[in-house]
Specification:
By secondary structure, this protein is of the alpha/beta class. It is 44% helix and 19% strand. It has a five-stranded mixed sheet with strand order 3-2-1-4-5, with helices on both faces. Strand 1 and strand 2 form a beta hairpin. Helix 5 runs parallel beside helix 7, helix 6 packs across helix 8 and helix 8 runs parallel beside helix 9. The radius of gyration is 20 Å and the shape is globular. The two termini are 22 Å apart. It binds 5'-O-[(R)-(carboxyoxy)(hydroxy)phosphoryl]adenosine (KG4) and zinc ion (ZN).
Amino acid sequence: MLILSVESSCDETAVALVRDGRQVLCDCISSQVDLHRIYGGVVPEIASRKHIEAIYGLAEQALAKAEISRNEIDAIAVTYAPGLIGALLVGVNFAKAAALALDKPLIPVHHIRGHIAANYIAYPDLKPPFLCLVVSGGHTMIIDVKDYTDMEILGATRDDAAGECFDKVARVLGMPYPGGAALDKAAKSGDENRYSMPNPKLSGNPLDMSFSGLKTAAVNLIHNTHQKGEEVEVNDLCASFSKAVSRMLIPRTMAALEQTGYQTLAVAGGVAANSRIRADLMRECEKRNVRLCLPPLSLCGDNAAMIGAQGYYEYLSGNVADQTLNAYATKSFEGESL
Ligand code: KG4
Ligand code: ZN
């Protein structure tokens, strides 16, 4: 089954062609990140406008690159939630129009389910059930992937997402948006023990996480140091902060592995590109003899191939939409279809 998939939930317009959920024929991405950088973050109105400008040409480009004609497409999959509503609507309307014009099924895909499915592309033999750690700019959660379309959140952040905190601290340090990757690079040559960072204990669900205190501690430390007329050791702060984020994520993920008894851990989302988190995951999984699936960096960030992968399994489970499909800024994805 050949799926044309569309992703436009944030600042990347993407169109891919994916066969049977696993084989990527092409994955075309048009990033707007340079445009938003001057504002220090994504400007929703600009994002929507740029998606409109890019999407049709990108779809044409995808077909040309893969040497596929329109009548070979079996279905259209699209991210319909969560994300910036205006941005999502561009993709959803494009996909609805394409499905109508080609008379093919329209498959709604939840963005987080898509991130998880990036692992099916990177690891063709991977099948549920497994545990997945999702760490992106907007979400941080530990998910029991019981089946391709049946998932349960075992733990999640109670406040900010890990990526959001990386970006905020990077911004205060004067790094360009989105600062996660720059902060990661600086951390590599820093002393992780130079600055002490909080390690908050949460009551209730032991798999829940919290990052806002950590973010505030890092931001306050930077401001207080500047107020004293001193300079922060940027690399050391980045290393100390990355260590603290990892300390919040990894023990809970390992506890979830123990709780579920799974021997496979998949990782998803843009923050999965973080070298400290990757190294810690590798070490801890090796200790426990757990199979670790860490997709390549190109599949960690937003892309349309992951939407095509998940779209295939949504289709197989009967999750098909009609022309009334809407986009949603927030939407739960556990267990349900639409
Ligand atoms: O999954 P994604 O591409 O978009 C969302 O759905 O949110 O994730 C983007 C996030 C941004 O916050 C970005 O700064 C972060 O992933 N990121 C990183 C790294 N590379 C990207 N954070 C830490 N270290 C990195 N190497
Ligand atoms: Zn994403």
